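Methods: holo model generation. Sequences were used as deposited, without trimming of termini or removal of tags, and paired with ligand SMILES retrieved from the corresponding compound records. Each pair was processed once, and we did not select among multiple samples. The sequence and magnesium ion SMILES for this entry were:
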Amino acid sequence: MNEISSAAIIELALDLASSLSTKDRFNRLLDTVRKVITCDAVVLLSYRQNVLRPLALQGLSRDTLGRRFLVNEHPRFEVLCQSREPVRFAASSPLPDPYDGLLNNRMGDLPIHACMGLPLYFDDEFLGLLTIDSLTPHIFEDIPERTLALISAIAAATLNTALMIEQLEHNAQHSQQVVAELTKEAWQREGGELIGESAVMVQLKQELEVVAPSDFNILIYGDTGVGKELVARTLHQNSLRKAGPMVYVNCAALPENLIESELFGHIKGSFTGADKNRAGKFLLANGGTLFLDEIGELPLTAQSKILRAIQSKEIQPVGQDNVEHVDVRILAATNRDLKDEVLHGRFRGDLYHRLSVYPIHVPKLSERRGDVQLLSGYFIERTKRKLGLSQLKIDSSAMRYLERYDWPGNVRELEHVISRAALKAKARQKSSAIVVINPGDLGNLVNESNSFNEAIIEKDETLSNIEPAMADINLKEATDHFQRQLIISVLKQEQSNWAATARKLKTDRANLNRLAKRLNIKVIKKVI
Ligand SMILES: Nc1ncnc2c1ncn2[C@@H]1O[C@H](COP(=O)(O)OP(=O)(O)OP(=O)(O)O)[C@@H](O)[C@H]1O
Ligand SMILES: [Mg+2]
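and the model returned the structure below.
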């Protein structure tokens, strides 16, 4: 090999070791080949499943890049693919040339010319070919085998690196798609939709629409079972981070001594039992959302660590010297009154302020007028599917019980009541194609609404009987009847809420309670 060739190859080796884009690597490889070997065309092709795909070329028309050569349709390629050594075709070879008509600035058949190909192997795996053509016949005959072996090795390494990078990029992209898909699936498994048309739900949905695409940390608060997790998943799905992960942390279930490692990760050997490096939830949520559920249960020490991570956007895995940058949006949920927790010193005020840049309150089910019916329909349809029933319905009296009940366990309680009732109804009506839930399937719930319902039934009777009874009624009884009727009707409107009923009747709660007692109106509220 002459000096120019050696220098060019060393320069190429150095170039390839630096961080170049794949396209640049290929171009430098082809430039070097042309410096070392006088030729008119050089092409790098990758091989996969009997197909050769040009990755880079010089001296051939650009459309060649779009061609996919089936090896068994091109005898010269077939010869090259079966060889482990460079092949120099004789100038007089009768085998058709795959590049016929593709040479730049040259129309028609290729005349007699020099043509050779280097099969590229890396770790015994056949990766592709480097083909070199010249319009000057016999020009390749004097090139030493050693030079060709060196070019083959460098071309194979270049191709291998490019294929590896392509594979890694593909894997990374694939993993990201899997994460986004799983996150979306978890959201859809939960229903993926916030059912409700009551004024408070319409307002909640509007708030979510506004705040979801922002990068604010959000504190979601509300009673147990109101749908806080569903709200959090909805926020993530409608955020700009939806292609990223949503990582769930149940703060109430974190063992105190492992909180730091769970959230920030650890390195191998940092404590007994740390037998390998482990990424924490913050790092797993990088580029996405971290959902800290039941944040009110977090001990104060852990609160300080989370605060630091949120403020600095940096985390330090247990046992690691340096910190790592993370980009996460925090959504937190609690059924505690965090302001009150702050007042009592159980929750850090500074963390509370960081989290509640935009607080979102999820209302109780009893405040969502008219939504019990919609949610019931939604859960009935879902239960029907789960139980494999062809039809599941609820009769109107059972629906009335659902509407009158106070729902201390909120939407989750309604969901459970319907699942249980459907099972009972199914067992009762084994052979029926249409399964109907009746009040008997609602179990305890009916008893708990009973005194209220009895009162309402009495009221209905009073209404229907009032005229015939009019003849011998006295003023006191008529006034009691009227008061009773009015209180029951407002109680019903206010979904058994005594405070709201008292407000509406412009009386105070204690008076109303006394009056109701005298008139024997009761609503029993119990958690089932
Ligand atoms: N508006 C809604 N539309 C449809 N399904 C809902 C709605 N709200 C809640 N759900 C469903 O009710 C169940 C309870 O909701 P979720 O788990 O989000 O409540 P939560 O407030 O996080 O409860 P907890 O305080 O017990 O953790 C879930 O199955 C959820 O999908
Ligand atoms: Mg929850």
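Residues 228-229, 293 surround magnesium ion (ligand 2) (CB under 6 Å).
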